[in-house]
Amino acid sequence: QVQLVESGGGLVQAGGSLRLSCAASGSIFSINRMGWYRQAPGKQRELVAAISTGGSTNYADSVKGRFTISRDNAKNTVYLQMNSLKPEDTAVYYCNAVPPEAYWGKGTLVTVSS
């Protein structure tokens, strides 16, 4: 059974930082490229960062240079370090495989105040 549990969101001022964590079940984590997605109010879900099983990373232009994705294969965990946060980063953040599995976790809310 696929399990994805995101944590680490919260309220932060613009320019601040947060670190998100995602605990994933072994079945999805060990064989897949993993990613962080976000969905802002009234917008479609978008992929913002991805990491391969070997550690290669890709980022959306909107977060490049500010966000860093990493993974701990021993802990089946994916992280997203978010620096220099902007109000437009406000969204619910989710992790999933890339491309995503049908199951989604509850996500974690990030709110950036101006």
Write the layout of secondary structure elements.
Elements (H helix, E strand, L loop, with lengths): L3 E4 L2 E4 L4 E7 L1 H4 L4 E6 L6 E6 L5 E3 L7 E6 L4 E6 L8 E7 L10 E6 L1
Parallel strand pairs: 2-10
Antiparallel strand pairs: 1-3, 3-8, 4-5, 4-9, 5-6, 7-8, 9-10
Q: Can you put this structure into words, describing what you see?
A:
By secondary structure, the protein is mainly beta. The protein has one helix at 26-29; strands spanning 4-7, 10-13, 18-24, 34-39, 46-51, 57-59, 67-72, 77-82, 91-97, 108-113. The strands form two sheets. The chain has a six-stranded mixed sheet with strand order 2-10-9-4-5-6, with no helix packed on it.
Helix-strand sequence? EEEHEEEEEEE
**Oligomerization state of this entry?**
single chain
Uncertain regions spanning at least 5 consecutive residues: none
What fraction of residues sit in β-strands?
Answer: over 45%
**Overall 3D form:** globular
Q: Mean pLDDT score, rounded?
A: 94
What is the rounded distance between the termini? 40 Å
Q: Numbering strands along the chain, what is their spatial order in the largest sheet?
A: 2-10-9-4-5-6
Outline of this structure?
The chain is mainly beta and 114 residues long. The protein has one helix at 26-29; strands at residues 4-7, 10-13, 18-24, 34-39, 46-51, 57-59, 67-72, 77-82, 91-97, 108-113.
